[in-house]
Each structure stands twice: as C-alpha cells, then as structure tokens.
Design a protein that fits this description.
Strand order of the largest sheet: 1-2-3
CATH topology of the largest domain: Ribonuclease iii, N-terminal Endonuclease Domain, Chain A
Order of helices and strands: HHHHHHHHHHHEEEH
Low-confidence stretches: none
Oligomer: single chain
Mean pLDDT: 89
Shape: globular
CATH superfamily of the largest domain: Ribonuclease III domain
Largest sheet: 3 strands, antiparallel
Number of domains: 2
Length: about 250
C-alpha cells in the first residue's frame, strides 16, 4: 500500500531545504514509540535510534560553531553548548518550525502533558537531525542548525540563560540586592517513594520564587527559574516607570 508522505516531502523542501532520497527516514524521525505500539501491523520502527545519532551530530555541529567563533576556555564553551542543545532550546526550535502536526503519536500521547510534549518535540528534533545527516550528509545539517538553532545564541548570551538557573540567580541577586539567595523547603507531599518537595527561594527575606520537584535540588531549580522571571518583571516594570513621556 502506497503511503501519502506529501506533508513530509513538503517539510523537507520548505523547512530543511532539501529533497530526501529516502523520505521514510524523515517519517521515522517523527514516529514516537507509542505510535508503533498502536500500529504494530503497519509500522515497525520508531525514532529513538535516529534520535541517538542526531544527538551526536547536533553536539558536533554546535561544538564546531563555538570553537570557530569564540576563544573562551573549555568550561565556558561547554556551558554554552549545553544551553544550545538542552531540551528547552531544541524543543522551542521544533515548535517554531511547526514539528507538531507531523508527529506520529498514540492517542494517549496526544493527550499528554505540556511537559511530555516538549520532551517529545525535543527528541524529534534530534531524530530529524539524524535523518537529515544520513540522507544528505553533514553540510545540510550544519546549514539547517545555523539558520534555526545557532541564531538563538546571541539572545542566550544576552540573557545569561546559558548559566544554570541557580548560578544565574545568585549572580543577579548579589549584584542587584547585595544578598545571596536562600532556599527553604516549604512543604513535602506524597509518600516516601514518590515525594514532591515544594521549595521557596528568598533574597533578603523576600520570597522571590517557588518550585516543586521529586527532589530538593529539582525544587530549587524550579524556584530559581521562577525568581529569575520575577526579577525580569520587576526590571520591565521599573523601565516603564522611568520611560520619558512624549
């Protein structure tokens, strides 16, 4: 039975800028394991192997870009690379490029949480990189990533989001308020084997953010991210107050 892969061929041409020799590779890149489980008679391969390959190619392209364009020491370059290839960054790129309509998911996964969907999008982005590399080689992958992911690096540098949220919050709080953030567990919920820690972060006694997670460390990260958003809101509010009137 002939499959209608026109949507994937259009995506390859319009978004990736290529004509795939083997369009099945690209279709597989969008195929989640749950879809295979639901369509065992007609589909046999999901995207996890392509994701594995794409992850390595993504790191290589990003590493080459940073090496060729910046002279910072290894530790900083490693942190910069992590910020570019992390789930949030590549998931956001997949969203911008409208990956979602092409995803092949089970009915259950389509009703999943936003967090689960973000992870699926990030995984599919890596799988598409793997498929593009196998079908077209290194240069088209490098071109695609330069135009759709590496262009975000200027903003990452400007906002400081390449740093770990806790590290960035500490730097920000010390520079603006002269105080180091203090994290406190506000509450614990659930049984011992499935506990959620609700954590607050305080700067000079002011509650700046709250977060929850399966560990204190995860809760602290979430709280730090919430505090950074509050700092940004405060900054924007202050800018509006002092803006000159015409």
């Amino acid at each position: 039975m002939n499959q209608d892969y026109s949507a994937y061929k259009a995506f390859a041409a319009q978004t990736l800028g290529v004509t795939f020799n083997n369009i099945q590779l690209l279709v597989t890149a969008f195929t989640h394991r749950s879809y295979v489980n639901e369509h065992r008679k007609t589909v046999s391969e999901h995207n996890e192997r392509l994701e594995f390959l794409g992850d390595a190619v993504l790191e290589l392209v990003t590493t080459e870009y940073l090496y060729n364009n910046f002279s910072e020491p290894e530790g900083i370059l490693t942190n910069w690379r992590s910020s570019l290839v992390r789930t949030e960054s590549i998931g956001a790129a997949a969203t911008r490029l409208n990956f979602e309509p092409l995803l092949r998911l089970s009915r259950g996964e389509r009703r999943g949480t936003d967090r689960a969907r973000s992870q699926i999008l990030a995984n599919s982005f890596e799988a598409v990189i793997g498929a593009l590399y196998l079908d077209q080689g290194y240069d088209p992958v490098a071109k695609f990533l330069k135009e759709n992911l590496l262009i975000t690096f200027k903003e990452i540098l400007a906002t400081g989001s390449w740093m770990d949220a806790k590290s960035y919050l500490q730097e920000l709080a010390q520079s603006r308020d002269g105080h180091t953030p203090v994290y406190k567990v506000l509450s614990e919920e659930g049984p011992d084997h499935d506990k959620t820690f609700n954590v607050g972060v305080f700067v000079n006694g002011r509650l700046m953010g709250q977060g929850g997670g399966p560990s204190k460390q995860a809760g602290q990260q979430q709280a730090a991210e919430a505090a950074l958003k509050l700092y940004k809101q405060d900054e924007e509010s202050n800018s509006q107050k002092i803006a000159p009137t015409s």
